[in-house]
Design goal:
Helix content is about 50%, strand content about 0%. By secondary structure, the protein is mainly α. The mean pLDDT is about 85.
């Protein structure tokens, strides 16, 4: 429900004569927390320290990687010799199986099959694919 407008002058609250008493805000509101420049300086210090730690960690990681690489390079001839020995053992087993399977085969010239030979031989030796003769489990 609304009130009808009246022609009387509105009543308004006014300050007391002479005004209100002045308040000293500095006395009642103490400093809260650090100043802006102090926050900025602290954040900058923390960020720079973090970047310093990241740099140290990256340098240590690079050094560790280089040491591992040097060890790998030093061991490579031995690892390659071991892999070659294992390859030759597998190759001999494969050649024995091939000789057993192809013992009755004769080529187009009438020659007996030679284990390890191929009609696709191009004159350059290449190792067989490792997984080609491996049993499928």
């Amino acid at each position: 429900m609304s009130l009808r407008p009246t022609t009387a002058a509105p009543i308004q609250d006014m300050p007391p004569p002479g005004g209100y008493k002045k308040l000293d805000f500095g006395r009642y509101l103490p400093d809260r927390g650090p100043k802006g420049w102090q926050i900025w300086l602290g954040a900058t210090t923390v960020i720079l320290y973090g970047y310093y730690q990241v740099g140290k960690t990256n340098q240590a990681r690079v050094q560790q990687t280089m040491q591992e690489r040097k060890v790998r390079y030093a061991l490579f001839p031995y690892m390659q010799a071991e892999a070659d020995r294992e390859y030759m053992q597998r190759e001999l087993v494969n050649l024995r199986k091939e000789a057993e399977i192809m013992k009755h085969v004769v080529d187009e010239r009438g020659n007996k099959w030679v284990p390890g030979s191929s009609q696709y031989f191009g004159g350059q030796w290449t190792p067989r694919r490792i997984g080609h003769f491996m049993p499928k489990w």
